[in-house]
Design goal:
mainly beta, 0% helix, Immunoglobulin-like, globular
């Protein structure tokens, strides 16, 4: 059974666009740059405010398919179809200019966020940063950025300055 649910998606945010395409081979496909409009036979195409948009699949597997929208995708109601070998499923969602979201350790969207040290080791209950350490908060949804058409790895979003300050003992 193909499962899809409505989403609110920021331009250039990688989001799950469906699961249950069980005929996809059991490997997880990850796309190298430059990204293509199809990956492992999966394509995601739709319409936003009368503009045709090809979402860019970045990870496809039988259990989850993630795609990103190009930064020139208009803001508004979107209608998309995920297709694989003649099987397809339609879904709708709202495209917004930005909508920050941190990745979670369990990849389910809840629980502790993914925060790593400068060597990409995840902080946990028994590890933490010390004063002066560099920490990385893994997140998405800041908005459009250069390279978000899939031709190259995206850079920081234009005009957005982000920072995190923590206070504590």
């Amino acid at each position: 059974m193909v499962k899809l649910k409505p989403l609110i998606v920021a331009r250039n945010a990688s989001q799950s666009v469906g699961s249950g395409f069980n005929q996809i081979d059991r490997r997880i496909h990850r796309s190298p740059y430059p990204l293509q409009a199809s990956l492992g036979g999966v394509s995601v195409k739709g319409d936003v405010r009368r503009k045709t948009v090809n979402a860019i699949p970045v990870v496809v597997s039988p259990g989850q398919n993630n795609a990103t929208l190009p930064g020139n995708t208009p803001v508004g109601t979107a209608s998309f179809t995920v297709s694989y070998n003649g099987t397809s499923a339609a879904f709708s969602f709202q495209v917004v200019a930005s909508s920050f979201g941190a990745f979670s350790v369990n990849s389910a969207g809840n629980g502790p966020g993914v925060i790593t040290d400068a060597n990409y080791q995840i902080y946990g209950a028994s590890t933490s940063a010390n004063a002066g350490d560099v920490s990385i908060l893994w997140a998405t949804g800041l908005g459009a950025s250069a390279g978000d058409d899939g031709s190259a790895q995206p850079t920081s979003p234009r005009g957005i300055k982000a920072g995190i300050r923590l206070w504590g003992p």
